Amino acid sequence: MTTQSKVLSDPAVFEAEQALVAPPEGVADIRLGLFSFAHLHASSYAHYVSQMPGVALAGVYDDDLERGRRAADTYDIPYFEQAERLLAEELDGAVICSENAAHAPLALQAAGHVRSILCEKPIATTVSDGQAMIDRCRETGTQLQIAFPMRFSPPVMELKRKLDTGILGEMYSVKCTNHGSMPGGWFADPKLAGGGAVIDHTVHVIDLLRWLWNTEVEEVYAEVGHELLHPGLGIDDVGLLSFRLTNGVFGTLDTSWSRPPSYPTWGDVKLDILGEQGMICVDAFEQNLQVSSDKAGKTSWVHWGSSGDEGLMADFVAMIRTGREASISGEDGQRALEVALAAYESARRAEPVRLSP
Low-confidence residues of the chain, pLDDT below 70? Predict the structure, then answer.
């Protein structure tokens, strides 16, 4: 197991990293800029960062004036109408949560102006844009990290520890689901999102499998449905992938926007892993309390376990402070994107698609 995997597998490593390089009390040694609140995760990231000692939010840029000013008011930080003006604020890091199609333009603009970039998944909407981001960050000495918070989910981290011990022996198969509610807005715009439910959810799970076994997807077959659950949506809302990993494991992934608005939370991430010594089943969002609220009008799940988003942001800040490499690299993001795009290609051709090693 690599050093980076050890960092991600043990929460104590995060605490040790933070304590080792923690700034004097009351001193902000890390300045972060927030670039767009288009993505739903942006508010969560900002919430956790705003509570971290030694970290200051220098401001927010958003091309949506109302959305940007609302975020600035929420976190009591300046709003910038132009990205270059926020980049001029001597930032250490940029957190990009724009529409998927804007990831590449913002990352290319930020590279060289900041030490590190955290970019929401998927890395981009095309392989060429993803590669341009990786190349530009490498040329400028900018660390590029992709936001895959599921690596920091406590149940998933425990799964990683178990698998690293070889507890299941020879691995046979993995059955995965990543269901969610239809997010609406730009997520249903092919030009801005690059695809619907398949690209939205495939990258999360494929990244987990690559990380769990240090393996790659070598072949994928997919069936993708458009407007099957949401008539008139204009984009794919369901998908079923079958794939083979280079370590010999066969897998399936049910990815869809199938959860109704009344569902207790946005969706799920589940992994059922079968090996010669048995099976491990993981529900990444099972740590919750059920709260029935007349005000909310439904029963909701309130999560009591550690947050994957919090772990992701702690890791990003620790990376900046220590100067180490990104735990989840641009190449990781690119590999996950390639599988999602191969799934779309497979559905168009109605045949399996092999991926480059």
Answer: 1-28, 288, 301, 303-305
What is the pTM (predicted TM-score) of this model? 0.91
The one-letter code for the residue type at 218 is: E
Instruction: Name the residue ranges covered by the structural domains of the chain.
Output: 3-150+308-329, 151-307+338-354
One-letter amino acid of 70? R
Please, what CATH class does the domain formed by 151-307+338-354 belong to? alpha beta
How confident is the model over 28-84, as pLDDT tens digits?
689 999 999 999 999 999 999 999 999 999 999 999 999 999 999 999 999 999 999
CB-based contact 115:142 (threshold 8 Å): yes
- Rounded CA gap, 59 and 41, in Å? 17
**Architecture of the 3-150+308-329 domain:** 3-Layer(aba) Sandwich (3.40)
The answer to whether the beta carbons of residues 75 and 59 sit under 8 Å apart is no
> Cα–Cα distances in Å, from 30 out to 22, 80, 87, 318, 337?
10, 19, 14, 10, 30
> What helix, strand, coil percent values describe the chain, rounded to 5?
40, 30, 30
Cβ contacts of residue 220 below 8 Å, gap of 6+?
241, 242, 243, 339, 342, 343, 346, 352, 353, 355
Question: What integer pLDDT is reported at residue 286 of this predicted model?
Answer: 77
Q: What's the pLDDT score for residue 160? A: 96
Instruction: Check if 3-150+308-329 and 151-307+338-354 are the same fold.
Output: no
DSSP string, 134-153: HHHHHHHT-EEEEE-GGGG-
Backbone angles phi, psi at 93, to 5 degrees: -150, 155
- Report how far apart, in Å, the C-alpha atoms of 40 and of each of 72, 100, 141, 272 are: 16, 12, 29, 27
CB 207 within 8 A of CB 166: no
